[in-house]
Amino acid sequence: MYRGLAMKKRITLCIILSFLVASPLFAADLRFNTQDFSPFSYLSDGKVSGPASDIIRAVCRQINATCTFKLGVWKEAQQEVREGKANAMFVIGWNRGRSNWLYFSPQILQTEYGFFVPKGNSLNYSEVRDLSGYRIGVYGPSNTARSLEKVRDKMQKDKTMTPIDIDMQPDDIAIFQNLNSQERTLNSVFSNRDVGNDIIRKHKLSNLRYAGAQRKLNYFIGFSKQYTDKNLINRFNKAFILLYSQGRVEQILRRYAMKPAQIEPHIIAYFNSK
Hints:
The protein is α/β, with parallel strands linked by helices. The protein has two domains: about 140 residues, D-Maltodextrin-Binding Protein, domain 2; about 100 residues, D-Maltodextrin-Binding Protein, domain 2 (3-Layer(aba) Sandwich). Helix content is about 40%, strand content about 25%. It has ten helices and eleven strands. The strands form two sheets. Strands 1, 4, 5, 6, 7, 8, 9, 10 and 11 form a nine-stranded mixed sheet that branches. A two-stranded antiparallel sheet has the order 2-3. A hairpin with a 2-residue loop joins strand 2 and strand 3. The protein is elongated and about 55 Å long. The N and C termini lie far apart (about 45 Å). About 10% of the residues have low confidence.
């Protein structure tokens, strides 16, 4: 009898240990996936770099968590989070579909979407009417493309405007190169401002300029609801709020000529209450 009980205890212990080994994502470590999305995230000497990863590393040090990073193809990076091969992905915008399976961090930085044009184009964008009849390139499928589609939908409801024609492409560099060339087929490119300026700088596209913002947006970290311990996420978010309140997030972003998002007091209180 006693021998049988001892055997059952050993079997139970083995099951528990095997579960812990097979499910390391529930331990005090976090695996982050991202894409090549310069200047927000990119590889430098084989290391995932940029303002977002710098912020995440600072938070991980604050909570004594072991955090690792992987940069890859965005579709695959997201799928790995869905499957529990990674805990989180960054940087992302909020949308309802993502909120069904991701917990969102506080907003870690602010940027904006806007329009780029050739320098010979006098556009200073202020309203959708300014774009009447434009053929506009955009990277997609993406949140950026969905934002531009909303602009088009708004124009289609107003019969006094000619709606824009959207040219969605999976290569944002090629879109900017098209706009920069003398044989361009586009009137404008719709892009994240910081991403667009980074492409222009790196590829020496001297014929382009930023013509104005369509909307400001915040970027977040998204944590898997299914595969990440909620208590660990809460610790992470509270530590981020602390670093934000101390001005350390702003210090990190200043190195990249970026600014933090403005986090309202009630949002700070919400994450501190978790």
